[in-house]
Amino acid sequence: MSQSTATAISPDSGEHWSAPGAWTVADGIHRIPLPLPMDGLKAVNIYVLEGADGLSLVDGGWAITEGRSALEAGLAKLGFEFGDIRRFLVTHVHRDHYTLASVLGGEFGAEVLLGAGDRPTLELTNGDLDGWISTDRLLAHAGAHELAEVWAANPPPAPDLAHWRMPDQWLDGDVRLSVAGRELDAVHTPGHTQGHYVYADAAAEILFAGDHVLPTITPSIGFEPVPVVDPLGDFMASLTKVRSMPDLRLLPAHGPVADSSHTRVDELLAHHEDRLAQSLASLRAGRSSALEVANDLGWTRHERAFSELDFFNAGLAVMETKAHLELLAARGQASREETEAGITFAISG
């Protein structure tokens, strides 16, 4: 069983994993946690790779004052500054990973790389994508009509487009990158987002895992602004793909450094199989919508009732439950019916 995110100590620092600083995790590789003051995750880990031509960073952080200051301070402890950054290898498009990379890349000329699967999200954010479905409509379609009304009444602020520039390079498929004197395998791992990538340094036996393999939690699934057909199926296939790679030291975006990517992947696969079984049992009990099934499940490691969740986390829970039900339907264990009123599921046969 994984340790709690709230109490997890990272072996590279000997302190709570979110403690500020610049912590050396391997020769020429350092972890700088950046604070997320408005987020339950507490911090995001940025990894600094030293090279002869300058620095390469895995992820960039959230473009807020606290994050920028923490990154500047962490680099200074290592004897560097923003102008030494040559590139950002961003694992995925979420704001706590992408936006500071976008800003600093624009200011200092650092190259930003991102998975092509996240292009629709960036196009949507920049107002260039037609035919998208708003979150409140997605929630209503999943049976969560009251929750959809709350979401509609609390729209997100207009994005600062300087935070959401298009990257300098799109990654497509699995590719080998020569970065900071290292050969990194950029491995496409859709699920959390469609453009998610992990970066493996086979020689150093290290996996920069982003949000794909987290040591204390499982990432949200099914909550993208541009929906996909089977996000949980994608995520579990990507976990299996990482499991087929050598067992590597796990360097996650949130949480402490861990010894074994295989151990955590096995735990995550088992967790989702258990959630699938619970969702199937809920359908057998007569539930039919994602909202109804979500009400039967426990949430967080503390097994909180759905009714205890705030509107944002309740929305995540409904869409994640829908992702589990969609996978049950894809496996032939449940039937699926879509009408104008919404999507319902039932035991197959």
TrEMBL record:
Residues 43-254 form the Metallo-beta-lactamase domain. InterPro entries: Metallo-B-lactamas, RibonucZ/Hydroxyglut_hydro, Sec-metab_biosynth-thioest, WH-like_DNA-bd_sf. The keyword Hydrolase applies. One of its GO terms (molecular function) is hydrolase activity. This is Glyoxylase-like metal-dependent hydrolase (Beta-lactamase superfamily II). Keywords: Hydrolase. SUPFAM superfamilies: Metallo-hydrolase/oxidoreductase. It comes from the Bacteria. The keyword Metal-binding does not apply.
